[in-house]
Write a structure and sequence with these properties.
Layout lengths: L3 H12 L13 E11 L11 E3 L2 E4 L5 E2 L16 E5 L4 E4 L5 E4 L2 E3 L8 E4 L5 E3 L16 E4 L8 E5 L7 E5 L8 E5 L18 E10 L10 E2 L1
Antiparallel strand pairs: 1-5, 1-15, 2-3, 3-14, 4-16, 5-8, 6-7, 8-9, 9-10, 11-12, 12-15, 13-14, 13-15
Length: about 230
């Protein structure tokens, strides 16, 4: 979950929104880390953080992470869901592994686990991430089509978007029949049907804008060992 400080930064930026910063398109482009918050006025998802949990992304569930080290004091202290981007331009994302490596047209979470954890959109539109130590992505999924602009620390907000698979935005789909949280995050892909979403009722899903708020690249709270 985004910390109170980060959420306050989001609120401040919403009152004084300026042009977002796009990563420089050269190999010296700095690595940026960012959290995502939903924006849909007068809705239960407005200004709620988007968190990784159970291989999927949610609004209304806490971030789920794990560290296998015996000495837990050596584990990364992060408890938020943070994505990482940078390296060779806007379409290049550096995976937080040791050593760092970059994957073209892909988006990864800010993790330490060797191999990283890749973010993708499943064929049914669900926004998901790979299991630690595995690069498996189901056939028909999209690992490209993501774009992000990231604002300044304590300044402007950016946006996280996905235009693959014919998508035109993100949806927050409630698991419960009464429409209450938690909400699973989906890309509104072409052909998305009732059977693809929790509760089998697409009409209960809420469209939202995915805003980005940056973390400092050296901020320890931006790192976990792995998301689960």
């Amino acid at each position: 979950m985004l910390s109170q400080t980060v959420v306050c930064s989001f609120l401040f930026a919403l009152r004084a929104l300026s042009s977002p910063i796009t990563p420089r398109e050269d190999s010296s482009s700095p690595r940026v880390t960012f959290g995502i918050i939903a924006a849909r006025s007068a809705s239960p998802v407005h200004l709620r953080s988007v968190n990784a949990n159970g291989g999927a992304f949610w609004i209304g569930k806490e971030t789920a992470s794990y560290c296998p080290l015996t000495d837990q004091s050596q584990c990364p202290p992060g408890n938020s869901t943070v994505l990482a981007a940078g390296g060779g331009g806007a379409s290049m994302v550096c995976v937080a592994v040791i050593p760092f490596k970059c994957l073209a047209d892909a988006w990864d979470q800010n993790v330490v686990v060797p191999g990283g954890q890749q973010v993708y959109v499943a064929p049914n539109g669900a926004l998901r991430f790979t299991t630690a130590h595995s690069a498996y992505v189901p056939a028909g999924s999209a690992i490209d089509g993501f774009n992000a602009t990231v604002g300044e620390i304590n300044g402007s907000l950016g946006r996280f978007t996905f235009n693959g698979l014919g998508a035109d935005g993100f949806l927050a789909c409630p698991v419960n029949a009464d429409g209450t949280e938690p909400y699973q995050v989906f890309a509104n892909v072409k052909g998305l049907s009732d059977h693809d979403v929790p509760g089998e009722c697409k009409d209960k899903c809420l469209g939202f804008s995915a805003l980005t708020g940056p973390y400092k690249a050296d901020d320890p709270s931006a790192f976990v060992w792995q998301y689960t």
